[in-house]
Amino acid sequence: MRHRGTTLLALVGLTAGAVATGGPVSAAVPAPAKAPLAIGTGGAVATVDPDATAVGLDVLRRGGNAADAAVAAAAALGVTEPYSAGVGGGGFFLYYDAETRTVSTIDGRETAPQAMRADTFLDEQGDALPFDAVVRSGLSVGTPGTPRTWQRALDEFGTMSLRQVLRGGIRLADKGFVVDETFRQQTAENEEKFRTFAETTELFLPGGELPEVGSVFRNPDLASTYRLLARRGVDAFYTGPLARDVVAAAQDPQESPGAAEVFGGLLTDADLAGYTAPTREATRVDYRGLEVYGMAPPSSGGSTVGEALNILEQFRLSSMSDAHALHHYLEAGALAFADRNAYVGDPAYTQVPLRQLLSEEFARERSCLIDPARAAAKPVPAGVPDGTYEPCPAAAGATVAEAEEGLSTTHLTVADAEGNIASYTLTIEATGGSGITVPGRGFILNNELTDFTFKQVDLTRPEPNLPAPGKRPRSSMAPTIVLDDGEPRLAMGSPGGSTIITTVLQTLVNRVDRNMNLAEAIAAPRATPRNGARVNAEPAFLEAHGEALTALGHEFNPTPEIGAATGIEFLPGGLVLAAAEPERRGGGSAGVVHDVLGPRRDGLDLAPQLAD
User: Where is L-glutamate annotated to bind (predicted)?
Assistant: First the structure.
């Protein structure tokens, strides 16, 4: 084991996690049905998983509000989506309070250990360490923020106790969930990483094999962890025996016999004990008469989605052909990403010009660079958000490379009968995180510190996302809430690393400018403009729009799928629409407390006019 100043620990036996049938299943157990669209009253929940959606709906039926149901659904996702989320990670929580008509946010982003330095990810020659080697190591593990986020959300907005909202997750971990093809595939894709660590092999490769589709996967150790938090509160995660187990697992990951050594981590007891999940002011831009709220730095989601919308505000997309509307979307996304990479980081460590990035004047200056007949050469340089703007200046900023981000993460959207909304994106970063399971605790630790920029490329310009003690790495998570004159209209978000930003942006453009209903806007084929020389795009997008956009100068790389969004929209007449992916990541799950229409939706306008 390669590690810095740590002590080897004895391997702790792990008995959690079993496939009930013990190997291949001759008669597969059917997985819960997934419905990507639901319409009704009494509140709604949309997640990637039917069990998590059911847990959230149960809390709403028992009188809980949107915050209560969001935490409950998140805990359930920690069971059924353990490779994307869980108490070993972090996230960002947006909340709309119907009584005060205000949007608040909680920053549950992981923090770097106090021992981290700007050169932590460099070798003795000053070169960046291999990215994959850092991911599957304790060196990538930041201080988890999810437990503090849950408690903060309940304290600030909820009506139930942590004990009450964890009941569904505990029950699910005890009884187990049905393994579907997506869970098996994600396990297979991470098999090499998982086999590196003894505890992870024991839990997620029961009997040394991939879990069979249709079998039941149980995690009694995670149920015990949840029971501990329910009984003693989240302080039990940040101090005491559980905290010591987390630190030991990060500092001294226990490799399987014969596995290659991995880096030990820098996380300490003091890092856990000192963690906070602060509230931050939400970002806001006005788009087509709507108020669009997002997450402020250290997330780049709110600033980048907001800047791109401000740029697109200068054009009437609704009067354009599909090709030209999408051309403007692609160009605005690239411009906003150039500025994101150059200026956004943890505001406690770098001066983020957030007000200028989200100003209409800066957006007008940047929009001048969009040629309606031709794509700009990529990557485009960043703008200069200095408060002094000209009609169409020459580009003067630097071109800054983007740091690598994992494509995992999960998002859930909840609304209650009173009109409160929770839009919550949570993650352990890469699919399968660091691969390190905390012995006897049933959850994987994050690899969020790989979201830092490993090495400064341009020494003449500040790099806002270098590692530092206690710093929060830049994120792309973009939970979003849209209001109309203070009244809720829709909320959404997505997983997908830096493609989160473009997924949210494209879905909003689809819904507001291209007059798709929310389910159609989420299902529509995607492309992700992140200021690279070529745009990654789904095959269906290329089939529908590739020829026309290539004629305008865009270049594409095909990619199987982008994002996995969920959303909720408030319809006229007191109805609420919940939508999730119909296909991506195996399809999502949307539900309402009272389904008033069932499959019959004739005569109902699912895309009421939103834009002014």
Answer: 109, 451, 475-476, 497
339 assigned ligand-binding residue: no
| Residue 408, domain extent | 37-279+403-595
**Number of domains forming the structure of the chain:** 1
Instruction: Identify how many contiguous H helices and E strands the chain contains and give both numbers.
Output: 21, 19
Residue 391, pLDDT score: 79
Apex CA 559: angle with CA 554 and CA 561, to 5°?
120
| Residue-wise pLDDT tens digits, 548-591 | 999 999 999 999 999 999 999 999 989 999 999 999 999 999 99
Which residues face 515 on adjacent strands?
none
Helix ranges, 177-278 (H)? 181-189, 191-195, 198-204, 220-232, 235-238, 241-251, 269-273
How distant, in Å, are the alpha carbons of 272, 288, 564 from that of 107?
16, 28, 22
The label of the residue with tokens 């800047």 reads: 307
Spell out, as residue ranges, where the chain has pLDDT lower than 70. Answer: 1-31, 394-408, 598-603, 612
- The answer as to whether 310 is a domain residue is no
Which of 255, 256, 218, 224 has the alpha carbon at shortest distance from 242?
224
- Does the annotation flag 240 for ligand binding? no
Average pLDDT over all residues of the chain: 92
Greatest C-alpha distance within the chain: 70
Tell me the backbone φ, ψ of residue 145, rounded to 5 degrees: -115, -10
Tell me 111's DSSP state.
Answer: B
Q: What is the DSSP letter of 544?
A: I
Q: What are phi and psi of 417, to 5 degrees?
A: -65, -20
Q: 3-class DSSP state for residue 608? A: coil
The b-or-e profile of 66-82 (16+ CB within 10 A means b, else e) is: bbbbbbbbbbbbbbbbb
For residues 180 and 183, give the distance between their C-alpha atoms in angstroms, rounded to a whole number: 5
Q: Does residue 579 contact residue 603 with C-beta atoms inside 8 Å?
A: no
**Residue 350 covered by a domain:** no
Active site residues: 409
What is the rounded end-to-end Cα distance, in angstroms, of the chain? 60
Known binding residue 476? Answer is yes
The verdict on residue 68 lying in a domain is yes
Those residues whose C-beta lies under 8 Å from the C-beta of residue 450, and which sit 6 or more positions away, are: 131, 134, 135, 140, 404, 406, 429, 430
CA neighbor of 180 nearest in space, from 25, 16, 44: 25
Q: How far is C-alpha 357 from the geometric centre of its chain's CA atoms? A: 22
Assigned domain for 169 exists: yes
Cα dihedral 449→262→16→277 (10° resolution): -20
CA gap 173, 168 in Å, rounded: 9
**Helices within 483-582 (DSSP H only):** 499-512, 518-523, 539-541, 547-551
Among 44, 37, 40, 53, CA closest to 416: 44
Does an H or E element contain 172, and which?
Answer: helix 167-175
| β-strands 487-493, 566-570 pairing | antiparallel
User: Domain with 494 in it: what CATH number?
Assistant: 3.60.20.40
CB atoms within 10 A of CB 552: 17
Contact 596, 40 (CB under 8 A): yes
Asked whether 509 and 312 are in contact (CB, 8 A), the reply is: yes
Residue 329: enclosing H or E segment and its boundaries? Answer: helix 322-343
